[in-house]
Amino acid sequence: MNTVLSRANSLFAFSLSVMAALTFGCFITTAFKDRRVPVDIHVAKVMLKNVDDFTGPRERSDLGFITFDLSADLQPIFDWNVKQLFLYLSAEYSSKSNSLNQVVLWDKIVLRGENTKLNLRDMKSKYFFFDDGNGLRANKNITLTLSWNVVPNAGILPLVAGSGHVSLPFPDTYETTKSY
Amino acid sequence: FCLFLIIFSEKMLSVFKNIPTHMDYKGQKLAEQIFQGIILISAVIGFVYGLIVEQFGWTVYIVLAGFAVSCVLTLPPWPMYRQNPLSWQPTLPETSGEPSQKPQESLKKKKHK
């Protein structure tokens, strides 16, 4: 029985199938792209404190304050399958209690069409850089890395680490500012 | 007032039933080929254009435009889909002799397009 409704149904179903195929094509055209770009991170100042961490085990923990500069050109990452980037700056270090600690210090969302040239000076970290003990004091190797999630229109959600990280030693004493 | 409503709705229904929706068999095939062709062409155009301008939204809009165009072209039973009407056998006069043979023949013809 061929009626207006049955024609509308087949037309709609066919359009949806074609749209799904196109979306898959959009994914395929961008699936194997390298989304790494060089990032320049520079740490200006580090301050270390030893304070009460009320979320932890009620002992004094190390708290770091980092002031950093960040510059990167994110333009090559964007294409027709990218809606937004979620950038985050994380610190990685090893302490006595954990072989690997990862702390997110700062993040930023870059929407499509916004300014893709990052050039940030004297940024303060958004989130507290707490260690769960005293692992920050005199730590010789704390690595800051800028990574990003690529939020696509269709397909996988890649997690990319920017090339160009910075490693720095932390101060040996509390309440002192170390400049780099 | 209720009676009026009922009469009114019945009239509306009969109006809807009188809208011609019929397509003949060749017209149905033609309509299907037309909407598939339009949507596929708009999909190809949209994909290439979206790839060039780096905006997947344009791809979607172009396919939607193709959808709208093919709705207009193939949903209503335009006269071009009624060019090949079935040639029915003329109505047989009611006869008492061998009533079962002839209707079956016409049934077969209908099945063969």
Chart the SSEs and their pairings:
The complex is a heterodimer of chains A (180) and B (113).
Chain A (H helix, E strand, L loop, with lengths): L3 H28 L7 E14 L7 E14 L8 E12 L7 E11 L5 E8 L4 E2 L11 E11 L6 E3 L4 E3 L8 E3 L1
Antiparallel strand pairs in A: 1-2, 1-10, 2-5, 2-6, 3-4, 3-7, 7-8, 7-9
Chain B lengths: L1 H17 L6 H29 L2 H19 L26 H11 L2
Helix pairs in contact in B: 2-3
Protein name (chain A): Signal peptidase complex subunit 3
Membrane topology (chain A): Single-pass type II membrane protein
Family (chain A): Belongs to the SPCS3 family.
Structure characterization notes:
The complex is a heterodimer of chains A (180) and B (113). Chain A is α+β, with helices and mostly antiparallel strands and 180 residues long. Chain A is 16% helix and 45% strand. Chain A folds into two domains: 32 residues; 147 residues, Immunoglobulin-like (Sandwich), CATH 2.60.40. Chain A contains one helix and ten strands; from the N terminus they run H-E-E-E-E-E-E-E-E-E-E. Chain A is elongated. Chain B is mainly alpha-helical and 113 residues long. Chain B has a domain of 59 residues. Chain B is built from four helices and no strands. The interface between A and B is medium-sized, with 24 and 29 residues. Chain B: InterPro entries: Spc1/SPCS1.
